[in-house]
Amino acid sequence: MTVLVVALICFFTDQFISYKMSALLLLMTVSFLAMILDIIPVLLAAVLSAVIWNFFFIPPICNFQISNAEDWLMFLLYFIIALVNAVLTFKIRKAEKEARDKKEKENTIKLYNTLLNSLSHEFRTPISTILGAVDTLQENKDKLSVENQDELLSEIDNAAIRLDRQVENLLNISRLESGTLQPKYDWCDVHDLVNSVIQKLPEQNTHTISFNAPDNLPLFKIDAGFTEQILYNLLHNAVQYTPEHTHIDVQVEHLSDNCVITISDNGTGFPEDNIAFVFDKFYRLPNTKTGGNGLGLSIVKGFVEAQKGTIALKNNEKGGATFTIAFPAKTTYINHLKNE
Description:
Layout: H1 2-12, H2 19-36, H3 39-56, H4 69-139, H5 146-178, E1 186-188, H6 190-200, E2 208-212, E3 219-222, H7 224-241, E4 247-255, E5 258-265, H8 296-306, E6 310-315, E7 321-328, E8 331-332, H9 334-339
Parallel strand pairs: 2-4
Antiparallel strand pairs: 1-3, 3-8, 4-5, 5-7, 6-7
């Protein structure tokens, strides 16, 4: 069809362009088709363009007779060039596709190796802790003091929580990539949500967490589950990877029809060269202490973007870092909601 359209345009503009120029335009059309179609349609287009050029453009027109040797040579060259061009372009496309597939396969293998290495460590540690503590309790139950038993039970509990968090991260990243997770919007009191997340953080930390929100903060129509996971991952990372006695500040604002959440700390911040990569899957900062598989911030970004929001990270001038999250959200107040 494309060849016919170009041929018609050339035919009705023959007073402005020569039949040799028409040959170039038809060759360009075949070249374009070779970039987007399979080999058989391209070969058919090449043959069809040669036949059309002979019949409608080479004098005498409207028959297949060619009057001189020069036109015969041009026709043969056109036919050969059209076919060769079609085949070579198709082979180039095929080679490029094979190169892309090979690169994607290498990236997939690298990703799975990273995943397996991460899981082998992150799963083995809590599982070993649980098994060791259980064995100690079973074999020395009568010899252990109540304090020792409570300590072992606490280790089992912490290890189980860590293991559950790793599994949850893997499930979340898998659901995000498959597109099966979709936000469920409902009215949410972000003030209560933040306080709830703070209460769920590990108790054995020396960090100070403060939460500041305006008294007149409205209710936001957001996905409470997604937002809770965002807050938990960011605060958990801040508690886990900043120095002891670091101050962590959480703020929530209503700005320009957006729910804006900022989480900042006065720790050591991020290396400037690494900030662009912190939201990548399985990425961990160099020399980071053990405990994590590099999925937390990737999940945060996925849940933010699922709500059509944005997330940004920057280092503070006086030390530490700040995460800023903003997603569009409808707002209302409790008294308005009661009247609906």
